[in-house]
Amino acid sequence: MEYVTAAPHPRSEAAATARSGRRSLAVALLCGALGAAVALLATRQRWAEGTATVAGGAFPLTAKGSDVTGVPAALAIVGLAALVAVFAVRRAGRLLVSGLLALSGAGIVAAALAAAADGSALDEQAAKASGDTSATVDALTHTGWPYVAAAGGLLILVAGLLALRYGSLWPAMSGRYERGTARPRRGSRPADPERPEEIWKALDRGEDPTGA
């Protein structure tokens, strides 16, 4: 009677692990790069608008995301740099960089949502336009771009979580690009005693022409 074992083959396990690493790497790169691009794009759009009373009339005011808060754009750049740095470090360093990547995404989400209803930037513009430091913006409205920035931060957060979970399976920068690695020098060949010109060249280089 023959018995069939259910134990997986080591090669199949290794192949499955490699596929998981490749898939997670592709998804993390896509999410990180797309999230940073979305967050940066959203901060350049109009987040809030309103009016200020100037000389008895309504003066229109607008505020971009960068006017409201600079945190999402700064963290998007940090996250993009961390995504690239993941491949330049190993072990504990990769774990730390992956954590920084995830925190950058979480910070973008928190900052964008907190600024979604913020009108302080337009209040400052209203005070400047009216010449009254106590003036505030009227008819304040907000756009959906803060939530777009939050979505970009969420993508970066996903990339960071994937790096924390599967980063150990991802490739690292080749050792030939690391500092301190030098190509071994080939040993010099002893000079041919039947060729005087080679003996003189060896002496000029400070080498023993006999090769001893």
Question: Uncertain spans, ≥5 residues at pLDDT below 50?
Answer: none
- Coarse shape: elongated
Backbone structural class: mainly alpha
Measured between the Cα atoms of the first and last residue, the distance is 70 Å
- Secondary structure tally, helices: 7
Average of per-residue pLDDT values: 82
What would you report as the Rg, rounded to the nearest angstrom? Answer: 31 Å
Largest sheet: 3 strands, antiparallel
Number of E-state strands: 3
Order of helices and strands: HEEHHHHEHH
Q: In what order do the strands lie side by side in the largest sheet?
A: 2-1-3
Helix content: 55-70%
**Strand fraction:** 5-15%
Short description:
It comes from Streptomyces cinerochromogenes. By secondary structure, the protein is mainly α.
List the helices and strands and how they pair.
Elements: H1 10-43, E1 46-54, E2 57-64, H2 65-68, H3 71-85, H4 91-114, H5 120-130, E3 138-142, H6 145-166, H7 196-204
Helix pairs in contact: 1-3, 1-6, 3-4, 3-6, 4-6
Organism: Streptomyces cinerochromogenes
Biased composition (Basic and acidic residues): 189-212
Protein name: TIGR02234 family membrane protein
